[in-house]
Amino acid sequence: MGDRPYVLLSCAMSVDGYIDDAAPERLRLSSAADFDRVDAVRAGCDAILVGAGTVRADDPKLLIRSQARRERRASRGLPPDLTKVTLTWSGDLDPRARFFTTGESPKLVYAPSGTATGLAERLGGLGEVVDAGEPLELATVLADLSARGVRRLMVEGGGAIHTLFLTSGLVDELQLVVAPFLVGDPSAPRFVRSGVFPQSPERPMRLAEITRIGDLALLRYLPGGERG
Question: Which residues form the Bacterial bifunctional deaminase-reductase C-terminal domain (predicted)?
Fold first, then answer.
C-alpha cells in the first residue's frame, strides 16, 4: 500500500445517486461555492484522474482555476497545475480534447498493452502513453504514478472509474456532495455501476465529516481508515 498515492475520490450527485441527466447539456450539480471548494482540494493534490469516457463526454480542462492558488503552488516549487491522468481501454481519445491542449503540466494516458503503441502514435507527443499491462491493472497505474512523485491523487469520475477504484479497495477518502434534487432517469449515469464493493454492510465506511454548503451536503468518508 506504500507504493501508491493517497487516493481522494470526489463526486457530486443527486439525492437519488445520479451524476448527470440524459439531456445534451451537462447537469449542474454543484454551486459556485462548491466549485471553489473543489478547486481548493485540487490545489492540494499532485495529479487528477478521469476516465476516457469523461474526457469524451465533458471535455474537461482539469486546471486549477484560482490564480492565487496557482501562485501559492508555484511559491512552494510546485507546478501551477496538476499532472493530468486518464485511463483508456479502447484508445478512443481525441488529440484536440482540452485534456491535451490546456495546461503545461504532464498529461499521462494509461492504456492496455494492445492499445498503447497505436495510441501513442496517434497522439503524437501531446501526452505520454504508458503501457499498463494486459489487461490494464489499476495497481500498475498507481505504482507508476507513485514512482513519478505523485503523493496525492484526485479522482473525478466518471461512474466506471468510481466503480473501478472502489471495488478495488483503492480509495482512501471519498468526498461526496449531495445536491438537493432527484433525477429519476434510469438512462442517466449514476455515481457507481454494479459491482462487488468491499465497502459493504459488514465493512462500512467511516463518516469523518459533514459540511453544509448552502443546500448541498458534503459527506467525507474514509473507506478504510486514515492513511497519510
Answer: 5-215
Rounded Cα distance, 76 and 35, in Å: 24
Instruction: Find all residues with CB under 8 Å of 117, minimum gap 6, and list them.
Output: none
Task: Tell me the pTM.
Answer: 0.95
CA distance 16 to 179: 9
Q: pLDDT grade, residue 224 (50/70/90)?
A: confident
| CB of 176 closer than 8 Å to CB of 219 | yes
Q: What is the chain's mean pLDDT, rounded?
A: 95
Gap between the Cα atoms of 161 and 168, Å rounded: 11
Sign of the CA dihedral running 171, 177, 178, 182: negative
pLDDT at residue 226 tops 60: no
d(CA 166, CA 75): 34
